[in-house]
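Q: I'm writing up a methods section and want to include an example of the input and output format. Could you take the sequence below and give the corresponding predicted structure tokens, formatted cleanly so I can copy it straight into the document?
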Amino acid sequence: MKTHGFSVLRAASGQTAVVDTSMADQGITTAAAPDFVDVSWKPYADDARYTVSRDGRTVATTAPGAGAFRDTALTPGATYRYDVAPVLPDGATAPGARMWSMQVTVPAVGKGESAVSAMRAQATARATAAAAAKTTTVSWVAFIPQKRIDAPSAGCDYGKGYQFAGDGRSNFDWKSSKYRTAVHGTVDWSRKSVTGNKSIHATHVYNKKTGKLVATKTASGKNTYAKKMGSGSNYVDVRMVTHASNPFCKFGAIDGAFSMHLTTSGNYSIFSGKHRLMPNHHVYIYNGGKVTNVYTRKYANALCLVGPVLCQEATFYGSGKF
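A: Here is the clean output for your methods example:
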């Protein structure tokens, strides 16, 4: 029996387990039995070491070149999240490096039930839950936390003595309608399709001294989109792109892109992407009423949006369960 990446078969160790290969193309698999969980990944290099965390707590640091970890300090029926991250020679986690994450449920054997029967029941239940998902939406919102920011002295239609309106939003609340740009990609799992939609709010200019509104203009959204990159029997890859220049300035823009791998079993992984460090960025997944935060980042320099400043870039990262 094999559906949506879940199988009851012999793991690499030779023991029977519930094997989850839903993220195998991303380099990680798991195998769970009533008395162990094996996490296996594709090593970067022969001398690479890795930290393995369970529910946010480090449980192992591997030897160089290792590509697997076995956990036995477990409770049958419990669900754990495992994170695997590369480690630098000095012991620090490599910044921006690929980190794998998988959620694993330890099979529990009921009274009068065999271990194999328990594992088959769990694999069937997880595959059924995965098949029940109809749509999943990935959202990327960018917002200016200040209510207003000063216009630069040069480079824009309005300079000293004027301000641009921000969004007056200080938190990463997915329910908020206060933002500069928003792009959404909705995955239809039955069709393996992606429907994109976007929204860009108008830019307002105010006289700083009087507070009077003097101009309003909306940036073009032609280079902002969400689309399908590819798909397979149990996954869809989504490409998200945002580019919206300040319509009153020659320089500065909300700019970035990333690609995300989503599986029918509810795993996600960002496998490439960067963005300019202005304004605040928030990526989240909406799935059947449940919201999972994927990425949040506060801005570095407000002038990136309005002036000729060379903005830093940040690398998108994130993987886990939604």
